[in-house]
Write a structure and sequence with these properties.
Layout lengths: L1 E4 L7 H12 L4 E4 L4 E6 L4 H10 L8 E3 L6 H4 E2 L2 H9 L5 E7 L14 E5 L4 H10 L3 E5 L12 H8 L5 E4 L9 E4 L6 E4 L11
Parallel strand pairs: 1-9, 2-9, 4-7, 6-10
Antiparallel strand pairs: 2-3, 3-8, 4-8, 5-6, 6-7, 10-11
Helix pairs in contact: 1-5
Amino acid sequence: MQTFYIHPDNPQPRLIDQAAQLLRDDKLIIYPTDTSYAFGCRLGAKDALDKLKHIRNLDDKHQFTLLCRDLSEIATYAVVDNHQFKQLKAHTPAPITFILTATRDVPKKLAHPKKKTIGIRVPSNPIAQALLEAMDEPILTSSLILPNHTDILDDPFEIEDALNNQIDGLINAGIQTIKLTTIIDMTEGTPKVVRQGAANVDSLLI
């Protein structure tokens, strides 16, 4: 496993490029987001996705999330009308995952099989944004919650101890907050809170 010590506010471009190369090579990494550390792999990756499912013990019904740089790419992956787009624009970047109807461009194994939905999230974290910039495409992301654990790991050295032989890369940016994202279901007209996390979304629900 490669460990990259990256500054949380001023990410070093050379190290970001090295971490991005791991993603391009179908490797599984752990990196910081605006709420906590998370698993990340390239959209369409096979080996990395298999590793992620194995580590987290995920079944085929798991709702995956795409981390996006901004909303410019959203129409490629999710079906949104003008009203929904305005709502999303007013609430990004933020620690919010929006559940939206997936487009046909989203691989079947990533969209929720029965609902055909995908999670979309735009982070404010400088490292996550730099990684997205280097990749020039969304990153498939998943919370760093291990089987039989209720808490997210927040200490990169504990993460290294727990997962050293199972992941390919770790971006160590120091101890992160361990808040969860707020999850909002946007697929049924009126937005619905699936999980209340770090972001207050009362203005979305009016």
